[in-house]
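Entry:
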Amino acid sequence: MTHVKVDSILGLLFPRQCVLCCQGSGASNCCAGCRRDLPWLTRPCQRCGAPLPVDYGGITCARCAVSMRAIDHIISALSYEYPVDRLITQAKFQARPDSANALGELLGEHLMENPVGRSIDLPELLLPVPLHRIRLARRGFNQALEIAGPVAAALGIPLATDACRRIRDTVEQSTLTGRARYRNMADAFRATRDLSGRRVAVVDDVITTGSTVDAMAAVLRSAGAAEIQVWSVARTMSR
């Protein structure tokens, strides 16, 4: 029996409460009404995932050709605005696994329904962005791993938590801006598994400058990864 069928049965027997409106949400952590009202990214760049202007004529933006080196595709589900920003803050800083699971469900739903996602070959492995052991001990959980779990279950792709380690306890990225974010992530990751010829997807909560996933992708490429996608729940409107 698949995870989806099990969740549907459990949702009937023990209906969940929506993380946004607190009403019954069946088998999901976010009810259908709230999901419809979320700021879904309907017109992203088909390579880097950044929102495209309404009057822009192309399907890829000019900046990703310059800034993306190790990453082949970025797919983001939602714009980083209310109430998505609130859910991510809860998942990351307030020890709310229900919020993290809801975000993972939303990302999985987007990947299954999004035409851009369907046109790209699915990866063989999902790699949640790792936390350094000090921050993991302080926080108690890795929100990227909590988000990646429902995505892996929905798409039937195994998680690979042993493929990359965070070897420097970096400053929290949300406290930095611009190039400081890239400097902060220099030499922050180490690949710990041979990925020769493998297609992988890095999973994270939100992409702003892309400095974290860019640094991680570089070491995965050096470990032999043939294709690297990045899947994030949210994307900020500015890069």
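Residues 198 and 239 are 29 Å apart (CA to CA).
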